[in-house]
Amino acid sequence: MFTYVAWEIHSNNNKKGAAMSLLRGQVALITGAGGGIGRSVALSFAKQGASVVVAELDEASGAAVAEELKALGAQALFIRTDVSSKADIQAAIDAAVTHFGGLDILVNNAFAPTPNVLLEEKTDDMLERTLNSTVWAAWWSMKAAFPHMQARGGGKIINFYSIDTEIGAWLHGDYNTAKSAVVGLTRSAASEWGRFNIRVNAIAPTAMGATFHKLAEENPGFAEMSAGLRPLGRCGEPEEDIGPVVVFLASEMSRFVTGETLHVDGGLHLPGYNSRPKDIPAREY
Asked: What is a single molecular function from GO for this protein (predicted)?
């Protein structure tokens, strides 16, 4: 009932041209918000009235997104953040609290990619880089955000997961390992921090970001093939398809949802996909 009424009210407001306000008065920090899905989440949050901290490693893109949000009428702050650095993450959380007075929403989106190579060719350094930018980054940011959310009487944490882990995607051994751990962390925090009214969920999105467009350009027919794998028959738009779902998890519409892993992929998780490189033989012994 609550969800229906909320959407009806805001739908009517939107028809009148009024600004949506599902997140009005909320302070959100989004890692990796300088581009791709992170930027789309930031834009979606801004349109819903949130004050947004753009925690991004690339200064040019991070600052540009902050200006985009301000142009929409939102309060925004760019903080250069290397999520593989505990000190950087702590500084970003501190900046959010100092600048906006608190923290209500944390979105752990950023990660540092490593070369796409076979598992036997993955190095300890690659795994360490991936763990630092995903598991450790989420651990550090969640622990840093916790006392501020507790002080506000609750909070929302959204961690990013991936369908790659579920299908054991080739060439992503370190990434699959790390994202599995993120789900474990998400569920543990949801179990233990519910007593503080802190909701913790994970989202597994796929959308037409920079990597998708690069693959589509290099491989004729890739976009059509990718769309055909999904029961909905199309690929996702970052802002139109992913952003609103993160807004849902960050808003009071999901106030009874925690410990959930939500696929936002047009149904791709149902059939999955074959990630085996074409040049890898079935047997090599």
From this structure: oxidoreductase activity, acting on the CH-OH group of donors, NAD or NADP as acceptor
